[in-house]
Amino acid sequence: MADVCGQVLLGSGLTVLSHPLMYIKVLIQVGHEPLRPTLGRNLFGRQVYQLPGLFAYAKHIIKIDGRAGLFKGLGPRLCAGTIGTLVHSKVAQKCQEQGTPQILGGQQKDKESSLQQVVNETTREMVARSCATIVTHPFHVITLRCMVQFIGRETKYSGVFDSIITVYREEGILGFFAGLIPRLLGDVLSLWICNLLAHLINTYAIDDSMSHTGEIKNCSQAMTGFFASMLTYPFVLVSNIMAVNNCGLAGGRDPYASVYPTWVDCWMHLSREGNMSRGNSLFFRKLPAGKTYAVDQKRFF
């Protein structure tokens, strides 16, 4: 229990510190560009037109809402983090106690093969993460909608309990799970890609006789995690867009944003427009090719 409490406190602290970054990323993901492109230099020193980065965006928000404006949606996000940690811990413990069925064929062995062990551990972690994601997704939806209110200057989602009532009254139970499917798919794919790729690298590319083998393996795990998150980023983007899609906020409907019947339609539209990586980078943001900046709507068309 003490370990779980420590995880909750540490997670809450990191959530508070990273919240402004997530806030700005979400606004970029839904296509809100309040500042005109400016002439700057890329990584190679060449002059190019760029979109405002993290710090310019943050200054714009502070100018309008003050420093406290960078923390819109923090309450429901803290709730999601706390509940998610508790659910993940309980489910992981239950899976560990009951054990996971053998995924690979073959006779039962006293000692699992290394690959089979990775598969079983990843399966247990997948179940725990998925349960935590499903339980906390309503708070995630409320968090995103609190953030997107910045676009239309609404106050529709003002608190956790009031927001719960608003979502249920207007959209029913399904409203709390808008964007859940792509989020789950992205989490599961990212987990499997990361763990299996790290296993292959640690098994076939790293010699156990090398010095600092443990540090090298930890580094490879971090690198594969980053690589997996890059590959599955489109699922995160589509999930966040669908969470605010046609929810009654200006940032989720025409003319500020397209309305999508399903998350697959959203995926296909973003793919056609070349926007599958929108919001992935907060620095050195290049101008979208072939797009025109609309001053009134503060977005590209």
TrEMBL record:
One of its GO terms (biological process) is digestive tract development. It is a multi-pass membrane protein. It holds the Pfam family Mito_carr. It is found in: Mitochondrion outer membrane. One of its GO terms (cellular component) is mitochondrial outer membrane. Keywords: Membrane, Mitochondrion, Mitochondrion outer membrane, Repeat, Transmembrane, Transmembrane helix, Transport. It comes from the Eukaryota. Solcar repeats lie at residues 116-204. InterPro entries: MCP_dom_sf, MCP_transmembrane. Belongs to the mitochondrial carrier (TC 2.A.29) family. This is Mitochondrial carrier homolog 2. It comes from Maylandia zebra (zebra mbuna).
